[in-house]
Amino acid sequence: MKRFKGLAVWVVLEVIILGGFIWWLIGIVGINVGETEAEAEIIRGELRVKSSCVQECPFVIEDFNADGYLDITVHYYYGANGGTASHYIYSPSQRKFVKLDDELDYYGWYFVDPDARILYMQYHDSAISGTEAAYQWEGEMDYKKIRQFDHDDVGNGVQVKIVRYDEEREEVICDYTYSMEEYDKRMEEIWGIYYKDFIWEKEVIDDSTGKKYMLRYAEEFKKEMAVYNKGIYYDGKLYVFDEDTYLTQVWQAEIVDPCSGITWKDKEQELVIHYGEGSSVVYADWLFDDIK
Questions:
Q1: 122 pLDDT tier (thresholds 50, 70, 90)
Q2: Spatial strand order in the sheet of 142-153
Q3: Do residues 132 and 148 lie in contact, with contact meaning Cβ atoms separated by under 8 Å?
Q4: Environment class of residue 271 by beta-carbon count within 10 Å: exposed (0-12), middle (13-18) or buried (19+)?
Q5: Can you name the residues that pair with 20 across neighbouring β-strands?
Q6: Bridge partners for 101 per DSSP
Q7: pLDDT at residue number 74
Q8: Which of 24, 31, 98, 226 is the most buried (most CB within 10 A)?
Q9: 279 with 265: CB under 8 angstroms?
């Protein structure tokens, strides 16, 4: 169980309705627990904000940057297509709450992966169209965009573009228009491209056709299953893309042990995934079975 190193509570000191907005003044009481009880300290302050939230207090206490210290999010407005908020991150080095820049202020929906320290933001345009962006937290206040997923209703289908950012380099993983029927049917697979952190990838050629394919492999630790297997259980997935970045296949195997290596055998036209004392083989007949 994760132990938060910082706790924060608030007390509403004043509420004023002015010009259709509500001015909220809160008193902040922060408890920095530290590594030992002797390091505990009390941080006090106040925060005055304007919000259109009428029915409930706009303040949310959450660990927005996944560093173990609770932070303060202030919701100013939320409607059908999204809302606006400000995020005040507790800085243990400065011993105070510091406002983030406004890049993350507009959102449709968001959640934080505390283990990977990844923030997932969603921006709505319509029921189908929108933009997803994933940010990797670094240190107290720093973050960088690592992936972006644009999905647009273009009338005859859904335009999917998924981009990966690495050291300021932009790499397009998928840029393809799927029919509406196929997008609905394969939504979990397509969205999986955005969420997965690929640990291996290789461009290969199908000897029978001369076509190029990009193979990408990702694995996910399954906590709920690991408790029955001495704390180890992984779900491996192989994503196959053709030359048009169309996702042709997704191969899945619950391999239990983490992947220890992947080998592409060009002569045999097969992929071998090694894990623990075993291995799984994926043959060309399946790899290059284009369903388009």
A1: very high
A2: 109-113, 118-124, 130-138, 142-153, 158-166, 169-178
A3: yes
A4: buried
A5: none
A6: none
A7: 83
A8: 24
A9: no
Angle at 274 between CA 269 and CA 279, to 5 degrees: 80
The tokens describing 125, both together, are: 């345009």
Is the pTM higher than 0.85? no
Based on its alpha-carbon atoms, the radius of gyration of the chain, rounded to whole angstroms, reads 23
What phi and psi, each to the nearest 5 degrees, are found at residue 12?
-70, 120
Contacts of 240 (CB under 8 A, 6+ apart): 213, 214, 215, 247, 248, 249, 250, 251, 287, 288
Residue type, 20: G
pLDDT digits (tens, 9 = 90+) for 71-95: 888 887 776 667 888 898 888 888 8
- Name the least confident of 141-150, 197-206, 220-229: 220-229
Q: What is the spatial distance between Cα 152 and Cα 161, in angstroms, rounded to a whole number?
A: 9
Place of tokens 């509500």: 22
Work out the mean pLDDT of the chain and round it to a whole number.
Answer: 82
**How far does CA 290 lie from the centroid of its chain?**
29
